[in-house]
Design brief:
The complex is a heterodimer of chains A (about 260) and B (about 300).
Chain A (H helix, E strand, L loop, with lengths): L11 E12 L2 E12 L3 E5 L6 H7 L10 E9 L2 E2 L7 H7 E4 L10 H11 L8 H14 L3 H4 L12 H10 L8 E5 L7 H14 L4 E5 L3 H7 L2 E6 L2 E7 H6 L4 H7 L5
Parallel strand pairs in A: 3-8, 3-9, 6-7, 7-8
Antiparallel strand pairs in A: 1-2, 1-4, 4-5, 9-10
Helix pairs in contact in A: 6-7
Chain B lengths: L1 H46 L5 H6 L3 E2 L7 E2 L2 H32 L2 H16 L2 H20 L7 H25 L3 H9 L4 H12 L1 H17 L2 H6 L17 H8 L8 H36 L1
Antiparallel strand pairs in B: 1-2
The chains are: A alpha/beta (about 260), B mainly alpha (about 300).
Bound molecules: adenosine-5'-diphosphate and magnesium ion (MG).
């Protein structure tokens, strides 16, 4: 399930087929099928409550935290159906990282936040203190946070500004070398400046990771994504290159939504 | 018209209700101080008079009704309280915190509700009944299992006190775990942590002060408990050497002897000095628990 095992010819990083999901009796996802390209940024748009978060969380099986969830269909990530019985959730979530709507650094130090994933996967024990330090520097540099925090690495991460916290939440995925990064409205808690910073950061990650980003902000979807998925009432309505979805939508609903007539 | 009248009434009633609530709050504080004052006043003449505090704290001789010379050493009683409480905490803190973790993190919701009701019922059993269980049920069991001549001893009292403290520790501990934002759990799970890793890498550090407070409240309960230990620990004033030795605690001494004393006599007053000591201990434990809880809040906000 790790990125290095991917065959280079595999152009799709995520292949979803006939995915349905119920919260108790309520069907939140209806027969969603979609192939998400490797190394691109795919935007996920649609009105509030249409199932964007649910869809995203079914890609790392985080929905299963709630006891009453039932899922059918297949999701192939790196060539393996993640809903197969023999899939290790730990390994899956190592390969598929997630960034949340509200920055949620753990209530430990900045340093420990970054190495948390390694410790969980027992990777930290194989590394020396020096190597861990280097990984921390590398990860924080990657998200343009190193200069801000290099002197306070052992301070609690919850004291950082929201923008810094969200950068940290992205940085802590990197030591695990994920192949997919899921982002659920990662800028909705940030101001314009923070939003711009996160978008720049995503640009830097483009190509090396497959990124799926949920956003409410049409302009952001246009700026950041290569491809776009439009969802409505639990169904996938349209999927294609972002320019097409915005300028030449094939479906009436998409056109109305991107023109801001509802949502 | 009716509307206006109702409005006038509510305008009158509101300050009244507020005053009543305020009165309740102040009276609670007043009563605590009044009780402390009363207990202290009864003990004070002895405390500042004939009582030799050095002997009081360091002597094991508790001979309050000796004709020749009464001796008031509480060291053995302190040792009794300390040993029973320590054993109770050794049993109840892991059990109570374990139960809290199980209920808040691992239990399916329906089982959780049932378990909580059972545990709260446990908390509602009066301490005399617990003492009775220690005396009638646990006593023969301990004799059969350990081979000791009597089963009314530290072990018995410790187990009974532990059973009494577990509900408090569990419910306060569960609150502490519930107060940990769910976003922490999701963050850890999304990084691949297992449920156990979430517990010991995230929840325990995040909730440690609340959990510590839970343990301290359990200790407070054990230190202050009277009837159960009176009935379950035996009645021997001695420094214990094993778990199977009977002991006497501070609280049990007051309960057992106060009725036989002469009001205003030395013995009577010394029992109130012990009462003052107990109140101070309970106060200290609670204060610590409180500061610990405040400590977390302060840190989280700051
Ligand atoms: N844990 C849950 N239990 C029950 N229903 C839920 C739960 N989470 C989301 N839903 C419902 O599923 C639908 C999709 O929600 P969500 O995926 O959060 O939408 P979006 O992220 O697009 O706003 C909504 O109608 C929501 O009410
Ligand atoms: Mg959402």
């Amino acid at each position: 399930m790790t990125g290095t095992e991917t065959a280079p010819s595999d152009r799709y990083s995520i292949s979803v087929e006939d995915l349905c999901l119920w919260y108790a009796d309520f069907q939140a996802l209806k027969h969603v099928s979609v192939d998400i390209r490797e190394g691109l940024v795919t935007g996920l748009i649609g009105p509030s409550g249409c199932g964007k978060t649910t869809f995203l969380r079914s890609l790392n099986r985080l929905n299963e935290r709630y006891g009453n969830v039932k899922t059918t269909g297949t999701v192939r990530i790196l060539g393996k159906n993640i809903y197969d019985a023999d899939v290790s959730l730990g390994e899956l979530r190592k390969a598929v990282g997630m960034v949340f709507q509200r920055p949620n650094p753990l209530p430990v130090s900045i340093y420990e936040n970054i190495v948390f994933g390694l410790r969980v996967h027992a990777g930290a024990r194989a590394l020396t203190r020096r190597q861990l330090d280097e990984l921390v520097e590398l990860s924080l540099t990657e998200v343009a946070l190193w200069d801000d925090v290099k002197d306070v690495l052992h301070r609690r991460a919850t004291h950082l500004t929201l923008e810094q916290q969200q950068k940290l939440c992205i940085a802590r995925l990197l030591p695990l070398k994920p192949s997919v990064i899921l982002m659920d409205e990662p800028c909705s808690a940030l101001d314009a400046e923070g939003t711009a910073a996160i978008e720049r950061l995503m640009d830097g990650l483009r190509g090396r990771y497959t990124i799926v980003i949920v956003t409410h902000n049409m302009a952001q979807a246009r700026r950041t994504s290569d491809e776009c998925i439009f969802m409505l009432l639990g169904e996938l309505v349209e999927h294609g290159p972002t320019v097409n979805v915005f300028l030449r939508p094939t479906r009436k609903e998409t056109e109305m939504y991107v023109e801001g007539r509802y949502g | 018209m009716r509307h206006a009248a109702a409005l006038r009434l509510s305008r009158l009633a509101e300050p009244l209700v507020e005053a009543i609530i305020r009165l309740c709050g102040w009276s609670a504080i007043f009563f605590v101080f009044a009780i402390f004052f009363f207990v202290f006043r009864e003990g004070a003449p002895m405390l500042f008079g004939a009582l030799d505090l050095g002997e009081f704290f360091t002597s094991v001789n508790w001979r309050p009704d000796s004709r020749i010379q009464a001796q008031y050493g509480v060291l053995a009683l302190l040792a009794g309280t300390a040993s029973v409480t320590a054993l109770a905490m050794l049993l109840s803190v892991p059990a109570g915190l374990g139960a809290a973790i199980f209920v808040s993190e691992f239990c399916p919701p329906r089982v959780r509700e049932t378990l909580k009701i059972v545990i709260e019922l446990l908390a509602a059993i009066p301490s005399v009944v617990w003492g009775f269980i220690g005396y009638m049920v646990l006593n023969p069991v301990l004799i059969a299992v350990t081979g000791a001549p009597i089963g009314i001893n530290i072990l018995n009292g410790g187990i009974i006190l532990a059973l009494m403290s577990v509900p408090i520790i569990m419910s306060v501990g569960e609150d502490a775990l519930k107060a940990v934002p769910d976003t922490y759990r999701e963050a850890a799970i999304a990084l691949g942590a297992s449920r156990w890793q979430v517990v010991y890498k995230v929840l325990l550090p995040a909730a440690k002060n609340g959990l510590l407070a839970a343990a301290l409240l359990g200790i407070g309960r054990s230190v202050g408990e009277t009837m159960a230990v009176l009935m379950a620990t035996g009645h021997a004033v001695q420094i214990p050497h094993s778990l199977l030795d009977p002991v006497r605690t501070l609280t049990a001494t007051i309960a057992a002897e106060l009725g036989e004393t002469v009001e205003g006599g030395d013995h009577y007053r010394v029992l109130f000095v012990i009462g003052t000591l107990l109140m101070l201990m309970a106060f200290l434990v609670n204060l610590t628990a409180d500061l610990v809880v405040k400590g977390v809040r302060g840190k989280q906000n700051g």
